[in-house]
Amino acid sequence: MTDNLTSPTKPDVSTTTVDGQLPHKPGGDAPAAAEVVRRIWAQVLEVEAGSIDVHHSDFFEMGGYSLLALQAIGRILTEYGVDEVEAVEWEGELLNRLFDNATPMLQAEFLAEMGCGTPSAGTRPAETTR
């Protein structure tokens, strides 16, 4: 018998909830995170930030493609100071959500779920001092 931590066919239940979602960390601010995503998308897509509607603009319809998506996600994670271990998990979830619905707000909602909003000095706002 295999366990959930070593079996490649089963999810690691230690990082997911009953419904298969990542655990919720309260305190995020989706509208603030959406502005961060909008700014980074504008840089990556080389467009004006004002031309991106956080609720309706589609990354791929605006000229984005998978490698630019990874670049944008990497910049978002750097903006929030996400460490390398968490970044792997977050990158996968952000990429999946981008392919499901390529709007800035959907990306921002995940970031808010993880406790993000307006970045503060390169660290996530929900992060506590150790």
Structural write-up:
With 130 residues, the protein is mainly α. 44% of the residues lie in helices and 0% in strands. The chain has helices spanning 30-45, 66-79, 84-100, 104-113. Helix 2 crosses helix 3 and helix 3 runs antiparallel to helix 4.
Summarize the structure in short.
With 130 residues, this protein is mainly alpha-helical. Helix content is 44%, strand content 0%.
List the helices and strands and how they pair.
Elements: H1 30-45, H2 66-79, H3 84-100, H4 104-113
Sum up the overall morphology in one term: globular
| Tally of individual helices | 4
Please estimate the helix content. Answer: 40-55%
Low-pLDDT runs of 5+ residues are 1-25, 121-130
Beta content comes to: under 5%
Q: Which value, in Å, is the CA radius of gyration? A: 15 Å
SSE string: HHHH
Oligomer: single chain
Find the count of extended strands (DSSP E, 2+ residues): 0
